[in-house]
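A favour, since you know our structure tokens better than I do. Would you make up a two-line entry for one protein for me to read? Write everything out right here, beneath this request.
=====
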Amino acid sequence: MNRQTIGLVLILLLVIAPLTAAKPSERDILIAVTAISDATIANVAAYLNTPALNLPGSIFEKEARATLPKALELKDADLGIYRKTYQSLNKPQSNFLLSLLQSAKGPLNDVALLFLDTHEWEEGQVSLTGRVSTVWGEGVTLASLMTSVVTGGAINPIEAIVDVTAAGTRLSTDVSISGSFLLFTDQEGYFVIEPRELKVNGE
């Protein structure tokens, strides 16, 4: 095979490769959206810990004098490691007072762990890289949000604007998700994460 033929073959391969790249299945998309939802609530819960909990692969961005972060940067943030982190914080306490103190330290920890446990994340299954920007709502501060959570009051919609890629063994191919989620408590007091206007791989 001469050089000209080899060059032509290489060009054809470069053209064909994007066309034959694996597209995410409906299952892949569902897993990616679920992972991003769980990561969002896990990081909101982490920030409400006293002191704030640093989840591996997660970095908060906060403006000067602001009490709540404006964004979250994710880099290889593993949902299985998130789950292990929250499980380590949720050890049964020997008496009611210690249990109460544990709850006050992280008022949304149980909610975060419930989501992570329900979806049975294991290390290596899904990791996330990208950015989540947060719109907390007019007049919302860390103190007012903490008060609502601790007293069982309603949490008004918090918008999370995401541009995140999911990868891992639970997926057949990487999946990029952009769009937004709303986080809030419903009329019955249950915590809800509602996906909105999501795009998959830019489509």
